[in-house]
């Protein structure tokens, strides 16, 4: 009996100790979660302060612009009044009675001079022309900035089903330009102008009357004229007149190449104008045959060759067609295309609408470019799920929509961006298409499983160099065999005397790509991981890109969780070190701290100190694999008990 009581006591004590350990662990997790919450609240407060300061600055800037405009109007009025005063004085001076008085005064002591003066005063004199008020002069020092400032969304209200909804307009960026060495004069409507304005230094807004004065300020290398149907050039494109002929003659005198861009309407309507250009491109592949027939039936003038014919289709422009969200949540409805895009919207307002709804139902026959633009803005197309999902499936349905939208976004960019289409155009007309690249060097530290390490980096696109730190005796041969021939493989032995940060710093000195990626050999990366991540450099001003929202898999409980799901597509104080992709020059300036644990946290603190922008991209393509890690639970939600690949590696 005593033995049984002793055994039961031991069991009770063991259970009590286990309960105490669990309670201590829960308390530690709670403390960690509270610390994270406090940090998030502090970061939110800082962001709110920055937004408030930005709003105040924008108001001050607007007030300054208003005051400047008022002063400019006052100056114009003063100049006009001065011209009126001069005109009145001139009118008095040429009046007959005034000239008779002058003759009497100057000839009172000389009869001959008096007679001559009276004879001249008797003849009629031409009256001066009265001055007219001129338009208020505008600033011309920053013509591109002024044009970009005017190309902004203006309509913040949408009406759906009789309900009015207010949203914050998408702010159209003013730059940067892909090819700042190239200046192009463009006649285009707002949609086409938005596609082209970031590809070069663009001169727009000139008319048939003032093009010589406007373009002379910075002579372009190329002229692109769209088949516009509105604006000052519409009549010239429909029936070539003095303005278009003068513009093309002005370009010919200066050796400026000319391109006519057919984007819509019947070919016959544009043939007369297009024949005057050196090159013709069309955005509509189905119209190539009609253009070929029209050009074949035309005999060029003596000494002039027939224009060449090519394609320049509409494509995604990363600076405006991207998943950067509007402020606030999406409108929780699936809208038809007509509800989303009423006819009165300007194109900057269209860019706002693209980002607004939960999903868009597009009818059959919708233009491919419209579908691509919607997809590039991260909006799911033609959602088939119920409009009001059951509460228990709402999160799963939202995740499915996010995966579907991400795949569509990737496909939209994969079909070719406007930058790539313009490369083809410039090559065809004989102008240099050189631009900055986004080649990537990857740093990986082998942790004992070289096969797994190489399997993560080998499928990646855009990699030009692999810097591998490994102690495996055949690491160099296996790495060169696994990587494509285009990739330069650099293998160095890992130095046990160095910290992780020290080894990364040493590897950084060997990198030659425009971007440098740090990948963790313990984790899993999808084949599109680097392609998706590098895309953020096309539409952000960040120097470091990574993931603050990502999937993690804990092997001890076979659970897949999603960390910080709200942190996608936003500028944040930090991202995970295993997802780091940075501009090489910036990363070299920052360096890696000489520590093994938390080197990424130190780097992020340095970024905040130095003002380096850090951007968190999408949640997909990467999985943090750990046996157990309680820190991941502090800001994560459970996705599934099972493998992470179906959720993350799409």
Descriptive report:
The protein is an alpha/beta fold and 650 residues long. The chain has four domains: 87-122, no CATH class; 177-311, Rossmann fold (3-Layer(aba) Sandwich), CATH 3.40.50; 331-415, no CATH class; 438-648, Alpha-Beta Complex (Spore Coat Polysaccharide Biosynthesis Protein SpsA, Chain A), CATH 3.90.550. The protein is built from 23 helices and 23 strands. Strands 13-12-11-14-20-16-21-19 form an eight-stranded mixed beta sheet, sandwiched between helices. It has a six-stranded parallel beta sheet with strand order 4-3-5-6-7-8, sandwiched between helices. It has a five-stranded mixed beta sheet with strand order 15-22-17-18-23. Helix 10 (288-296) links the parallel strand 7 (279-282) and strand 8. Helix 13 packs across helix 14 (391-414). The longest helix is centred in the N-terminal third of the chain and has 93 residues, at 2-94. 32% of the residues are buried. Mean pLDDT is 87; it is low at 140-149 and 384-392. Residues 119-153 are annotated as: Disordered. This is Glycosyltransferase 2-like domain-containing protein. Residues 143-153 have a biased composition (Low complexity). It comes from Streptosporangium minutum. InterPro entries: Nucleotide-diphossugar_trans.
Which features characterize this protein?
Rossmann fold; Glycosyltransferase 2-like domain-containing protein; alpha/beta; six-stranded parallel sheet; 4 domains; elongated; single chain; coiled coil; Nucleotide-diphossugar_trans
